[in-house]
Structures
1.
Amino acid sequence: MCGIIGITAKTDALSAIVSGLKALEYRGYDSAGVAFFGKNGLRIVKAVGRVSALEEKLGEETTTCGISHTRWATHGEVCEKNCHPHVSFGGACMLVHNGVIENYAELKKYLLEKGVTCSTDTDSEIIAHLYELLCDGDPVTTLGRVANALEGSYAIALLSALHKGEIFAVRRSSPLVIGRRDNASLLASDVTALPNAELYYLEEGRVARLWAEGVDVMGKRFHSNAIQSLSAPDKNGYDTFMLKEIYEQPQAIARTIADIPKKGRIKGEALLLGCGSSYHAGLACIPLVEKCTGRHAEALLASEFICSHALPANGQTAILLSQSGETADTLSACAEAKKRGYKTVGITNVETSSLARAVDENRFTKAGAEIAVATTKGFTTQIVALAGLFVKDEESLRALHSLPTLAEKVVRLSEKTAELVHIFLSAKCVFFIGRKSDYGVALEGALKFKEITYIPSIGLASGELKHGSISLIEKGSPVVVVCADGKLIAKTLLSVATVKARGGVTVAVTCFEEVATACDYALRLPALPADLSPAITVIPLQMLSYYVATALRRDVDKPRNLAKSVTVE
Ligand code: M6R
């Protein structure tokens, strides 16, 4: 989703700002813009489309201080006018904003009463006007007062026309990290844009001032909590980050297993909350969790949980799954779970994320940076980290430790899915079906497939097919059948027969010969521990989606309309 990068330095900062924007591209965006101190004061340059279009427009410009933004449209269409930075009515400031201003209509009315009209459709523009209206000459106190008037979530970076070389920033419920590197101060909404920097996490509601030599927060020099960021991610010879991340799964799974503490298993009822793939990971683990605890467990979409009846927790633990740790729905679900009395445990891949700071207890996936929008190693390591919260008997622990080797084998086997691409290329709709753990995997397979191929796909519990969706099956409809649980073979064979009777083309992803031979095509997997199988059975589905998407020449790493971390509800 939207990204922010700002730099103030002793030498030219514009090329570093553009590199920062490129590092943020993976988050998803539709336009980009930059505001900076030029020879004759503040300047803005914006472009719809890729950062490269903005770079071209910037030409030979230079600056030592600027802020910039990649926009993922929420309020108003994708066009230059709505693209950030926004400028206040008299030109006192220019700013970029991530998040959503919930009292935007009310503030817009207030501005109108003061004779200020808005020229864009965004909620962000009003922040700039409000700044100029409330300006007392000190950007720190003014921005503090502006922040107090805002409801919702925001990360704001601002340039004041009268304070050359300085950047002012404030945040609430939206990430903003400050960095120091080689006589430069930087800020970004995502650490990925600040490689090789010393990082500082800005507390909610505090206003920071950055200049080339330093940073202060509300007048106090900022030099605590310094953490060194990693170097910039690269594709390591792969064509795309997604392919690289698919192949990295065996190591990512092994690192996550090695990080599981010896003690601290959850014994009671558990509620698993997440969005998208993180929700699917939770759902796929329900049979495992119920087996280990002997108690009821449930997986809910974070966005639904926050709207559900506010029944108090009864000793249950809420487990919040989020690769990024910045998903707005999951953060709200965490706050809601705490309000209802749940103990909260977070499973995230980013130790410094908002979720990691919000929960009572943390477990981390050790996936390493995931850059492709479509998650792969994020999902498989979530399965492992979740299992690590529950499995305690020796047999299950042994099964858990067998996953890296199995993943290694299955990544290689999955290369065979390239031969199946022709079945999918002209499909109107693709189906993914499975039961129990395989149901969560089927949902994840369908999500992966549609998000990067743009071909409609549906994930279904096999038993549900006959209750409606079967009307969509016609001659040639591809149906991917996932089966990794020996107890489900008979029922799976029935689903396969039902699909084939209607002309559907079945593709098995299974470790059982009966299922493989019953289907038109099959990817045969080695024997798998059923309850942990989602960490493995999903791999061929990722690879299949990847091959179909590349055959269709899709932008695999940055699929249209999608954002890596969804920071609005
Ligand atoms: O960072 P999170 O795990 O909280 O993200 C939740 C979803 O937006 C995410 O899993 C999304 O569904 C995937 N990127 C899809 O591949």
Note: The domain at 3-227 is CATH 3.60.20.10 (Glutamine Phosphoribosylpyrophosphate, subunit 1, domain 1).
2.
Amino acid sequence: MGSRIIATGRALPRTAVTNRDLERFMETSDDWIRSRTGIGQRYTLRSDEPLAQLAAAASRTALERAGLKPSDLDAIIVGTVSSEFAFPSFGCQVQTLLGADSIPAYDVAAACSGFIYALSVADAHMRAGDFAKVLVIGADALSTFVDWNDRRTAVLFGDGAGAAVIVSEPGPRGLLSSLLRSSGRHWDLLSLRATGVRATLDTEIRRNPDDAIKMKGPELFKIAVKSMEEVSRQVAERARINLGDVSLVVGHQANMRIIKAVAERLGLPPEKVFINIERYGNTSAASVPIALDEAVELGRIHDGDLVMLNACGGGLTWGANLLRW
Ligand code: ACO
């Protein structure tokens, strides 16, 4: 018995911060950010907006579209590194907001690859017969962890949440294959000390630079391209699928140049690559489910299509899922 995504949802903070807004307090320009990353704006949480509420809103949309109630779920699995609490887990926080008591709810920490990991974990449980209906969420708020004086990282990240309802189902549709990879020795290319201090843009609180996201962008760029190309080829091979038969790649939206370089190396034409980074920036684990939800809404995905999800992020972690929609 395999698993299939039957509905998706997304939710964004109410505040959009454009590159021009950033120009007002940072030595940067709309031109630089657009040309080096493809980002035009990002949504950032305010101090009165808990990320868990955003994740619950995305989940409610996905559940409604699936025609299911929270009480129908067997598990909630969340890809996130942005929980406001070390414990309870983010999964438990969302569970309470949804009112889906007593089912297992837990987190998978794989930074930007969080949704890819969480989806793979959900699928494995469903194949084992443990769960029949699972809510898989990707939610992050990396804007609250940046040093706003560090223009090399602060301009990249936005906040958000995306959710997918997965049901176990026999037949040819659903998740065909997943591959997960990690390389802890590259931890220092992208890291964040766990201090619990958050700093939304609307407060005076500023993070100590030592406790903000640290990133070696150019090195990360090269590994991200290489690893996402490799894992995309490998997951297709594993599923015995020709890469050319993939209808749409919905990848992690970290940088327009990374997305395009991966597509080029895979020999995929632009129309087979979904890009929405211009409006959201890098929303970490939320980026793939937000993009997937938009792709579905825009009619870019049809029943029977082969859809590839891929991502790379802190850890380092990377991975891909191949789906027959
Ligand atoms: N505004 C204006 N100038 C800037 C900015 C900015 N926001 N940031 C950096 N610069 C300047 C630098 O100071 C540097 O100037 P200098 O040569 O005078 O020192 C110049 O621009 C070039 O800087 P680089 O860091 O070499 O720029 P690069 O072309 O590598 O782009 C970037 C930087 C966008 C971070 C790129 O390396 C990147 O995207 N890397 C991947 C990072 C990433 O995606 N991280 C997300 C998590 S991991 C993942 O999701 C895959």
Note: The chain is about 30% helix and 25% strand.
3.
Amino acid sequence: MSQDPFHWTTDAARLREEAGLVRALRPRAFDATVLDLASNDYLGLTRRPEITEAAAGAARRWGAGATGSRLVTGSTELHAELERELAEFCGFEAALVFASGYAANLAALTALSSHGSLIVSDAANHASIIDGCRLSRAETAVVPHADPEAVRKTLEAHPGRRALFVTDSVFSVDGDAAPLAEFARVCGGHGAALIADDAHGLGVLGEGGRGALHAAGLAGATGVVATLTLSKSLGSQGGAVLGPAPVIDHLVNAARTFIFDTGLAPAAVGAALAGLRLLRREPDLADRARTVARTLYERLTSAGLGVVRPDAAVVSVTAPSPDSAVRWAADCRAAGLAVGCFRPPSVPDGISRIRLTARADLTGRQIDRAVATILATAPAA
Ligand code: PMP
């Protein structure tokens, strides 16, 4: 019998096992007793009746699926409504909705660069940005994390090239915010575009949660594009690109993840729209998420843990090793607290962490319970 062409996957599994880097699916049970600090549901919207009802209503009216790609049958009036309201809320001229934030990043990077152009990319950017750079066929220069001077030097080394700089606005692993205003000054001075992925900023930063670009006074500015996910603060699913109308029009015509992907399901569109409207009605939600993050940070650091100062709603606690991070998260879970666990290769600096989501809807008692559980299960330093 000929050799199994996938036999090498067994060797790969053994290497993962030896390095303590095995990943496995753990289907989430419907368990209301688990305190969830692992999800990206920053504002606690995904189960709010207004949101779930809007999802159900949209599915009943428009169908369970979008039925086709956006340029064929997959654009409903609901998609257009969401795009208008998203752009208006965040302060941009136009918006385009995608099936995911991942697809939105691939679209922005591949359609707004090309063979011969330059992408400057922050070293800690999300995987979807890295993949967008790879797919773009542009020359990609990776610069040190949060370093406007490095961006300036790189742009200066490539005069006359069409260029863009891309960064997360809030980094998903450590929760630190990018110095967007400085980046914008550097980009503006060199005729380069700025693309910021505001997946973790929307709903948490800026006035009423309008996002990190709005907070930095960059929403709607010349040469600035935002990418978003609808799956975190808005409690739904899907992604979007926001920017000047001609740029959005270019994406409609050139972005392959827009043209060749089925449109976002109406239920997700309806839920995102309801999430956005809820954010308008409850503008203090963003503040509350940031306050919970600061409280978690202060209580865990004063107990001696290594915690990165949070700029938004991600609270990142360092663990001594990948194994101990996995055990820590498992011990928390056994005690009824779900936390995230980040290990290489998700962390480019090789430092493993547990990650907490500072949800706006956490009560004082829930915060007490979370802190007590994390401290009781913390590995010895
Ligand atoms: N960008 C960032 C910074 C993210 O954290 C994520 C999701 N983890 C994405 C993009 C992708 O968004 P989505 O899950 O909607 O595909």
Note: DSSP finds 14 helices and eleven strands in the chain.
